[in-house]
Every structure is written in structure tokens, then in C-alpha cells.
Design brief:
mainly beta; Lipocalin; single chain; signal; Lipoprotein
Length: about 160
């Protein structure tokens, strides 16, 4: 979701979700998860994220986002980010290691992945507080290190291996 904040800023979108959560253990997170945001940044946005948590702390993600206005796509893309999951003072932190992107549709030539945007995305740290809701469901409460007061939350389902 690193690019969501960047694009939300670019398109004038913002999301504020606040919740109190408890941390899950890292072993509970291992596996593949499909996540949907609790709240859209705007009525124009559709998105989901797949996370694949590994025992060694590597996390692979694929994020799909589409912005539409009056039924026409303004921007649609996939973002692939590899992270390292760290524990910092009792909280989890996702540190980006590499990023690839795939623009599916950009009729307005927004080009959200210029050099500056890529540099900024690789500098993000995402804090994560997962709350397990059984073995195969979780709520991921997340926030960026530069905006710790602005949380976003996703409902996640474990996927078959």
C-alpha cells in the first residue's frame, strides 16, 4: 500500500481509520493473504493487496489499484514490492527492498512512477499491527512512518498455498 498514500496525495484522496489492536506473532502471519481496505480513499478507487509472509521475514506483495471517474479508468496499475518484516519495540515494520510496477491503463499520462516517486516509495516504512481473527482471518492496522497519526486498516483472508 505504499503507493496508495503517494497517489492519494496526488489525486487529493485521504483515508483516516483509527483502531486499537493487539500484535500477532510472526509465525501466525506466515502464508499468503488477500486484503481489502476497510475504507476507500475515494469513490473513484478500487484496490486489493496480496501479501506473502515467509519464515525468514521476507514479505512479497502485489497491489492492484484502479481509479475510475464516471465509468472511465483514469489510472490502473499493479505494484509489486518485496519487504523485510522487522520487529521494532514490539511493533512490526515493513521495509521495502525492491519494487516493480506494471501500468495497465494511464490515459491521462499521470505517470505516477517517475524517479522521485520511486525514490520516495523505497524510503517508506510501514508499521503493521495484525489482529488475528482465527487462523484464516486477520485485520491489518497499518500506517506510514511519516504520517503515524493516519492509520489505514485492511481485512485479510489467508489463501490456500
Amino acid at each position: 500500500m505504499a503507493v496508495s498514500l503517494l497517489l492519494a496525495t496526488q489525486f487529493g484522496l485521504a483515508s483516516n481509520v483509527h483502531a486499537t489492536t493487539d500484535l500477532a506473532s510472526m509465525s501466525e502471519l506466515v502464508g499468503k493473504w488477500q486484503c481489502l481496505p476497510d475504507e476507500k480513499a475515494s469513490d473513484k478507487e478500487e484496490s486489493w493487496v496480496n501479501y506473502d509472509f515467509h519464515h525468514d521475514g521476507k514479505v512479497s506483495s502485489k497491489e492492484w489499484i484502479r481509479y475510475q471517474d464516471q465509468g472511465k479508468t483514469e489510472l490502473e496499475f499493479n505494484l509489486f514490492v518485496d519487504y523485510h518484516l522487522e520487529s521494532l519495540e514490539g511493533e512490526y515494520r515493513l521495509k521495502p527492498l525492491s519494487m516493480k510496477r506494471e501500468i495497465l491503463s494511464d490515459p491521462n499520462q499521470a505517470n505516477p512512477f517517475g524517479y522521485d516517486a520511486q525514490r520516495d516509495l523505497m524510503g517508506y516504512r510501514i508499521f503493521l499491527q495484525p489482529v488475528m481473527k482465527g487462523k484464516n482471518a486477520a485485520q491489518f492496522e497499518m500506517w506510514y512512518h511519516i504520517t503515524p497519526q493516519n492509520h489505514f486498516s485492511m481485512q485479510c483472508q489467508r489463501q490456500a498455498a
